[in-house]
């Protein structure tokens, strides 16, 4: 099994009813279910258009508790859209990672371990949707069609969703260890 | 995304303290966390030697709620061990599936959907350990070294572990639909 290291450059939470846009906080306790107060917190949540195998609104297991993006992939999206930068806030991300550029390719079942033992488990790549594109558009008003173009530019760069495997405090600046799951001989 | 169909040929539960060996029941309600009363029931459970990234006994997210084996793979193990059959009971399996022979290869994130909408999500392959081998040995006393040989013969045939994604009743004889996750373009 391969390992890697990366750094937590921002922790963010979506804790207002009005928007999915996140705001930076210096630290937070991860519980089973995610970040308390965040709009994606919960061991279960109502299914949406991402889970067409269930009627919309069905209570299902929440594997999308924490979303993580990589700084490098955000910059790739920005470069392709010809804007200066894309902030993790606009994507509704909870964690901004630096030092593991191809985060979106991290296989399901991989672990992200924090210095104090707190652990996340990767539940797969996130798929771009239109809402973050609309948010990006607001910040670059003179650039046409950013919202639509984001879906294409964000493809395979949109980061991952995780579940909390082991609760604990996490801090901006934490150095994390990534255990990369080998799907041919997977971790348990 | 590819689909497949299969049949639930047995439902089994490990509901005594003494053993991991399961016994057949005609139906059961799957809750978030698994089968109530089963030794693997729970949204969380204490980590063991399978999760060396955490100190043994740490409370972690339970992705091993329901174990499923395929009848075909059990027969392959039996053939290789030169015994008549291997029962799912001896492996501590909760569900015996027929009609999807290469169950162990089912990718993480795949869904198993029951006729009434109950849903399981595949959390990856199970890895053979020594205990089921010792159980098999008990039933074929005259065959030497079955316990040790099971680990090798069970490799990549030991079935999968699942979490309950959507609760509901399941019944012996249910025909299930399997949504096979394409890891290049994964389901959400």
From TrEMBL, chains A, B:
Pfam families: MOSC (PF03473). Residues 22-179 form the MOSC domain. Transmembrane segments: none annotated. It comes from the Bacteria. This is MOSC domain-containing protein. It comes from Neobacillus ginsengisoli.
């Amino acid at each position: 099994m391969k390992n890697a290291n990366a750094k937590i450059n921002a922790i963010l939470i979506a804790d207002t009813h009005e928007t999915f846009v996140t705001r930076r906080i210096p630290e937070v306790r991860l519980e089973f279910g995610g970040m308390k107060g965040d709009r994606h917190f919960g061991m279960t949540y109502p299914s949406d258009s991402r889970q067409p195998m269930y009627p919309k609104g069905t209570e299902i297991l929440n594997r999308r508790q924490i979303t993580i993006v990589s700084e490098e992939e955000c910059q790739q999206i920005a470069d392709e859209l010809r804007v200066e930068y894309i902030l993790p806030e606009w994507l509704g991300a909870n964690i901004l990672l630096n030092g593991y550029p191809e985060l979106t390719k991290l296989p399901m079942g991989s672990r992200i371990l924090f210095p104090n033992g707190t652990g996340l488990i990767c539940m797969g790549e996130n798929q771009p949707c239109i809402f973050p594109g609309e948010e990006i558009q607001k910040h670059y008003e003179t650039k046409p069609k950013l919202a639509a173009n984001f879906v294409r530019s964000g493809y395979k760069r949109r980061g991952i969703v995780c579940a909390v495997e082991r609760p604990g405090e996490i801090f901006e600046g934490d150095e994390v260890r990534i255990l990369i799951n080998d799907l041919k001989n997977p971790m348990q």
